[in-house]
């Protein structure tokens, strides 16, 4: 039998319609609704019967319509009541343009009833187009939610503008009084909150709104004048009725204003300033979270943007805000306590177990915590935030992908529940028939398959949520030991307290008791608010637990106390440590091992922010990655002072990262030295580029005329010497630098005709700017200490040297020891072509050849004089100056390089381990000798870096103090042998090799 005699469809199309119907939730009603529509059109709207026929012969539209008839009684009702909707299709590519006609049509009528009809008519037409594409999975989730949100925006804009015109005709237009601007029309904005603000609206969502107007002063001037506040109160109430009243055509949207300041007890509309004062003075954490998604949706959008911009400090704290977690958890617990008692807890896709709200809460929590420092997280859509969390290394890509995939699934289930009859439903049916219907709407063949899929999704979401959103009460008791609790309970003046602290292993019990009191009560107790003091109390037990387990308890406690005193009221860092026990454990371990890293963290607790990123310690960062990160950080710096501060903060963070990787055994010593050297390279390159740009803007480019009379740009380079030149920089190392320019010939002036200066003066100022940028003290400290004494003529020489003068000096005037130093030279910043020229010029100095015997005598004499002046005292070990130490290895390699580079240019390398390998490959050193020297040098540099981490200063000597030696042994625990016998063995192995070549 034919589906409908009115349609005259082919047998193939009818068969396809039946097959499509069978895959829907209601196969028989689907075909019945088609027959009823065809019969109705044949008798009442024959002109539309041809349109329906055409749609059914199109395979895409045939699938859309049959899917709607079989899955959504609501959409079937819309088609039956307004069959003309078949003539057009929702313009999903540009929903704003699609809705523009609604605003124009509403403003073209004077009848309120007609406005209400137009709004509902357009709503149902839009819902049909969106629903058809959603049910057939043609539209991604963002298109569906974006289209629904755009419709709400348009309906609010149309309703607002019509009502303002209507009320202005009764009361006169609202006019604000402003001292600066005089009398002007009062501005009004509607803020969309929640899903509307994020453009994530459902098919049956309430729309959460806040009404704001600009100023209180002024009023209306018509025949029935009212205040500005009353005018907009009336407008707001009328808008609720206009959109939310149920008529014969249904409703447009339910409006919910409970998110406004003070909720249902607060004013319906507020002035912008009143709202700002409320949030600044009384705003709670849940209101901060709500404002993350706030968006101006109708009215004066500029007013809304100004308001939200002023609220940024309220929503996003300057530093990582782990203190917000407690309030967010309370919000979640309140929701859980309400819904978990209900029978639908495991069926509610929004608020229930593993539901949408758990994903949203996690995302908003991360935004509140990290959005103050990372402006990229200040976006509204959930999926976009998850992507940004990955970019910020706060979430791994696999976890983010899982949450996005499951979020889309749960939101689609929510839509399938609501599109059935346009009801605000969030729970899956209990009965098997209803459950099967939802499964069919989701595209599943049976209920069991869908049930398994849903269960797997919510289980995964809840598991991720549980791992990433730790319950606060669990943290307080982690590793809680009786010892920590007892020590915190003592009063400092109790005699028994001193015995207990001594028994716990602290060397100075009186001092330890005072420091423990700071852990418990916080610094300057009388000045701390009770809420702040409580945060110190919450962290006291886990903090002291870790101190008792630290490598050096006294050292850890002293640094912890300094850290607490430095924090003061900044409890967000205490909250961070409470929420992330691994970070607390790492922090205390650093406090108990390294004075250098402890100083960083005591003076700059904001460095802790880096420890919560997912890959801060994960891998070796090359120069390119560092440079990109530095560029991104500096792009946010607004002035020269901010640039200097950002450079130092970046350097401190990278040094901390390398120090932790070193102490944790995640990095080999060579990686640490290479990383510190590359960090210095990146910073110097950026400092030079900025200084060069500033001077060129003031004086023009420095140029000269070459031998052919052609104008050339005069280049500049920074030449690194010493450890930086050898890519062996250590913690706290100075930078040995030489500045060289390539200006020569005639016409050596800058190009600006009005402010031209000689190139020599230009480069002197450039060098001075670089020095100032590196050595200036800021609240984040200096970048580096500089040593410029290796330049030609030392301290008495000019700050910047021309390449011609540099080469003349090195060729005709330099001492052998200066050529020794030059073996470590490495051009690191400046014009690339000039850097290559400089490398070749330096190499030529060595490949011209030296008198080997003369070099040997001078190097050996220099070493003897140094040994006489710097022999370590009895009982001391000097890694650098002891016989067989660093200086012996360096002098030996430098001698062999100077003596043999003319015949073996491949041995040239500023990096000493590479130079040793080159000497071995060239046959100049025996393989066993090279291995001994390389092994010894590696141990010396490892120990030197450990000493600098321990002491917070450049240090090469180890005294007889047993406490210091014990601390160093702990820092060197990763070695296969005890550090002090290992050093002595290396000294003894190096001495005869040194003697063989330099003291035969």
UniProtKB/TrEMBL annotation:
UniProt-listed Enzyme Commission number(s): 2.7.7.89, 2.7.7.42
Region (Adenylyl removase): 1-474
Stored InterPro entries: GlnE (IPR023057), GlnE_rpt_dom (IPR005190), NT_sf (IPR043519), PII_UdlTrfase/GS_AdlTrfase (IPR013546)
Residue spans crossing the bilayer: none
Reaction(s) catalysed by this chain's protein: [glutamine synthetase]-L-tyrosine + ATP = [glutamine synthetase]-O(4)-(5'-adenylyl)-L-tyrosine + diphosphate; [glutamine synthetase]-O(4)-(5'-adenylyl)-L-tyrosine + phosphate = [glutamine synthetase]-L-tyrosine + ADP
Domain (PII-uridylyltransferase/Glutamine-synthetase adenylyltransferase): residue spans on this chain: 329-469, 862-961
Residues of the Glutamate-ammonia ligase adenylyltransferase repeated domain: 64-309, 585-834
UniProt record similarity statement: Belongs to the GlnE family.
Role played: Involved in the regulation of glutamine synthetase GlnA, a key enzyme in the process to assimilate ammonia. When cellular nitrogen levels are high, the C-terminal adenylyl transferase (AT) inactivates GlnA by covalent transfer of an adenylyl group from ATP to specific tyrosine residue of GlnA, thus reducing its activity. Conversely, when nitrogen levels are low, the N-terminal adenylyl removase (AR) activates GlnA by removing the adenylyl group by phosphorolysis, increasing its activity.
Protein name: Bifunctional glutamine synthetase adenylyltransferase/adenylyl-removing enzyme
Source organism phylogeny: Bacteria, Pseudomonadati, Pseudomonadota, Magnetococcia, Magnetococcales
The encoding gene: glnE
């Amino acid at each position: 039998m034919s589906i409908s005699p009115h349609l005259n469809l082919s047998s193939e199309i009818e068969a396809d319609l039946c097959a499509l119907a069978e895959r829907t939730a209601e196969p028989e009603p689907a075909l019945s609704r088609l027959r009823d529509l065809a019969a109705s059109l044949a008798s009442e709207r024959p002109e539309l019967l041809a349109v329906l026929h055409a749609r059914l012969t199109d395979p895409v539209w045939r699938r859309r319509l049959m899917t709607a008839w079989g899955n959504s009684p609501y959409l079937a009702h819309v088609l039956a009541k307004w069959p003309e909707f078949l003539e057009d299709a929702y313009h999903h590519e540009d929903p704003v343009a699609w809705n523009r006609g609604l605003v124009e049509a509403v403003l073209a009528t004077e009848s309120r009833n007609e406005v209400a009809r137009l709004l509902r008519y357009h709503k149902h037409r839009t819902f049909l187009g969106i629903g058809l594409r959603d049910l057939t999975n043609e539209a991604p989730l963002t298109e569906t939610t974006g289209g629904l949100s755009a419709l709400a925006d348009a309906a609010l804009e149309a309703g607002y503008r019509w009502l303002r015109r209507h009320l202005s005709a009764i009361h006169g237009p609202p006019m604000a009084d402003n001292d600066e601007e005089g009398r002007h029309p009062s501005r009004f904005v509607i803020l969309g909150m929640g899903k509307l603000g994020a453009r994530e609206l459902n098919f049956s969502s309430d729309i959460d709104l806040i009404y704001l107007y600009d100023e209180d002063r002024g009023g209306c001037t018509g025949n029935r004048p009212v205040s500005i506040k009353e005018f907009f109160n009336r407008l707001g109430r009328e808008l609720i009725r206009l959109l939310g009243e149920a008529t014969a055509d249904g409703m447009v949207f339910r409006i919910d204003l409970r998110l406004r300041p003070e909720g249902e007890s607060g004013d319906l509309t507020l002035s912008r300033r009143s709202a700002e004062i409320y949030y600044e003075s009384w705003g709670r954490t849940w209101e901060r979270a709500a404002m993350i998604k706030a968006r101006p949706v109708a009215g004066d959008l500029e007013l809304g943007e100004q308001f939200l911009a002023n609220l940024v400090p309220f929503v996003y704290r300057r530093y990582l805000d782990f203190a917000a977690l407690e309030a967010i958890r309370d919000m979640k617990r309140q929701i859980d306590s309400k819904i978990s008692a209900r029978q639908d807890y495991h069926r509610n896709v929004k608020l229930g177990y593993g539901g949408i709200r758990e994903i949203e809460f996690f995302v908003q929590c991360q935004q509140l915590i990290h959005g103050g420092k990372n402006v990229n997280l200040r976006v509204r859509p959930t999926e976009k935030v998850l992507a940004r969390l990955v970019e910020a290394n706060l979430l791994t890509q696999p976890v983010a992908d899982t949450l996005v995939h499951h979020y889309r699934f749960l939101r689609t289930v929510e839509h399938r529940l609501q599109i059935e009859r346009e009801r605000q439903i969030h729970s899956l049916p209990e009965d098997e028939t209803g459950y099967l219907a939802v499964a069919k709407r989701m595209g599943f063949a049976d209920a069991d398959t869908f049930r398994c899929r849903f269960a797997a999704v919510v289980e995964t979401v809840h598991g991720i949520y549980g791992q990433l959103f730790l319950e606060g009460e669990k943290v307080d008791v982690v590793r809680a030991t009786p010892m920590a609790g007892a020590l915190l309970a003592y009063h400092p003046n109790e005699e028994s307290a001193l015995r207990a602290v001594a028994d716990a292993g602290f060397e100075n019990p009186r001092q330890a008791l005072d420091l423990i009191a700071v852990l418990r009560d916080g610094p300057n107790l009388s000045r701390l608010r009770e809420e702040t003091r409580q945060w110190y109390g919450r962290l006291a037990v886990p903090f002291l637990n870790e101190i008792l387990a630290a490598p050096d308890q006294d050292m850890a406690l002293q640094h912890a106390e300094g850290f607490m005193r430095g924090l003061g009221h900044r409890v967000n860092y205490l909250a961070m440590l409470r929420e992330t026990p691994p970070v607390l454990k790492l922090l205390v371990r650093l406090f108990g091992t390294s004075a250098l890293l402890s100083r960083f963290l005591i003076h700059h607790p904001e460095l802790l922010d880096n420890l919560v990123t997912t890959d801060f310690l994960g891998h070796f960062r090359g120069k390119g990655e560092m440079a990109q990160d530095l560029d991104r950080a500096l792009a946010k710096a607004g002035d020269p002072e901010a640039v200097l501060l950002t450079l130092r903060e970046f350097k401190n963070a990278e040094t901390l990262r390398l120090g932790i990787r070193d102490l944790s055994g995640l990095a080999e010593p060579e990686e640490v030295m290479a990383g510190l050297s590359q960090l210095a390279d990146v910073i110097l390159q950026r400092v030079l580029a900025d200084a060069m740009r500033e001077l060129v803007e003031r004086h023009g480019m420095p140029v000269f005329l070459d031998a052919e009379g052609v104008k050339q740009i005069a280049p500049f380079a920074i030449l690194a010497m010493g450890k930086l030149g050898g890519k062996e920089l250590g913690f706290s190392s100075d930078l040995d630098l030489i500045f060289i320019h390539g200006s020569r010939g005639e016409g050596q002036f800058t190009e600006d005709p009005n402010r031209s200066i000689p190139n020599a003066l230009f480069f002197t100022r450039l060098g001075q700017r670089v020095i100032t940028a590196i050595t200036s003290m800021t609240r984040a400290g200096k970048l580096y200490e500089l040593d410029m004494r290796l330049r030609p003529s030392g301290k008495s020489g000019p700050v910047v040297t021309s390449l011609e003068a540099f080469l003349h000096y090195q060729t005709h005037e330099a001492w052998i020891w200066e050529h020794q130093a030059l073996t470590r030279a490495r051009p690191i910043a400046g014009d690339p072509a000039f850097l290559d020229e400089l490398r070749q010029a330096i190499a030529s100095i060595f490949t011209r050849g030296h008198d080997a015997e003369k070099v040997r005598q001078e190097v050996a004499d220099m070493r003897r004089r140094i040994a006489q002046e710097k022999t370590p005292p009895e009982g001391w070990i000097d890694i650098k100056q002891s016989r067989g130490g660093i200086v012996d290895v360096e002098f030996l390699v430098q001698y062999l390089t100077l003596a043999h580079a003319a015949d073996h240019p491949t041995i040239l390398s500023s990096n000493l381990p590479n130079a040793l390998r080159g000497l071995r490959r060239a046959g100049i050193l025996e393989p066993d000798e090279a291995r001994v020297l390389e092994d010894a040098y590696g141990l010396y540099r490892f120990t030197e870096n450990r000493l600098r981490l321990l002491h917070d200063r450049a240090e090469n000597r180890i005294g007889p103090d047993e406490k210091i030696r014990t601390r160093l042994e702990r820092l060197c625990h990763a070695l296969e042998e005890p550090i002090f016998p290992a050093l002595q063995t290396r000294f003894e192995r190096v001495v005869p090799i040194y003697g063989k070549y330099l003291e035969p």
